Amino acid sequence: KKTFYFGSCNDWEFGTTFCQIFESRFQNEEWYDPERIGAPLNDFRYNNNHPAIAYLPKGKQILYFSSDRPGGKGGKDIWYSMIDTSGKFYTPVNAGAINTSRDEITPFYDNLNDVLYFSSDGHVGYGGLDVFKATGERNIWTDIENVDLPINSCVDDLYFSFNSKKNIGLLVSNRSEKNISGSTCCDDIFYVKYLKPKKLALTGVITDNAPERNFTLNNARIILTYTDSASKKAIVKEKVTVADEPYYFLLMPNTQYFINVFREGYFNKNISLSTVGKSAPDTVILNISLEKIIEE
Question: 247 pLDDT exceeds 70?
């Protein structure tokens, strides 16, 4: 089931503009008419806009969006709402430390690297709205940082999205030096291409350990746990294997990791992994075999 989420804004009385989030579903080879999502996600008293989806295991999703509803830190904040497998939205929760007393808007979630990109004029930047990124999910974040030049400029830079597999992205900006109008009056869409970044990564496949059944396992859960060196908090990342595709995690140097693998019908496996002495670019290949539970 495919669903397209978008924000729509209308001018009300006294020059006030209110934005609400809509959805359109793709069924029977066509897109159905958009419908406004009801409470608790939308509220006519407040602006709700810039929806962005993050995917979780077992078919669940997170919708990140910006809103000026009460309970935030000021201005527009990033909020999130959990979506269950039936499409039900849960009560929105403030995304926490990424927000400031000013505006945080246009979130985009990179599922491959567990990174949220957003624009803010409250964090320290180059001027106007700058693009920032933070690692984590929901309201637990580490490494909140400005993505720097040349993505950002002295004017507004927003609606950043990024394809990690192809290292390309899109950006909206009213910078004058490359704006078609030659001024900062208007927003243009810009194409971004990254040089291949140096990464320290972990990848591999999950297989049945019996020689006669040596095939990759679908729906295996790999849980990676480590302690963040700055916050001293435990960070947990999770992947679920799909078909024959390998799992993939980005790693930090000089860090001790604990890996737990679960698959229905198989014994669990626990593995320790250290990146002490390793540096980017490097890829640790760890193929993990599980023993099938044989019922007598």
Answer: yes
**Alpha-carbon gap, residue 184 to 173, rounded angstroms:** 9
Residues in the chain: 296
- Count Cβ neighbours within 10 Å for each residue of 215-228 and write b for 16 or more, e otherwise: eebeebbbebebeb
Sheet holding 61-67, edge to edge: 48-55, 61-67, 77-83, 93-94
Tell me which residue of 18, 27, 25, 23 sits closest to 35, measured CA to CA: 23
pLDDT of residue 280: 80
With CA atoms as reference, report the closest residue to 80 among 46, 89, 88.
89
The pLDDT tens digits for 6-44 are 999 987 666 677 899 999 999 889 999 999 999 999 998
Contact 217, 208 (CB under 8 A): yes
Cis peptide before 57, with omega less than 30 degrees from 0?
Answer: no
Residue 80, pLDDT score: 98
Whether the per-residue pLDDT at 2 is higher than 90: the answer is: no
Give residue 130's identity as a one-letter amino acid code.
Answer: D
Contact assessment for residue 18 and residue 24, using Cβ atoms and an 8 Å cutoff: no
Q: In the chain, what are the helix, strand and coil shares in percent, each to the nearest 5?
A: 5, 50, 45
**pLDDT beyond 60 at 179:** no
pTM higher than the cut 0.90: no
Residue 236 burial (10 A CB sphere; 0-12, 13-18, 19+): middle
Strands 104-110 and 93-94: unpaired
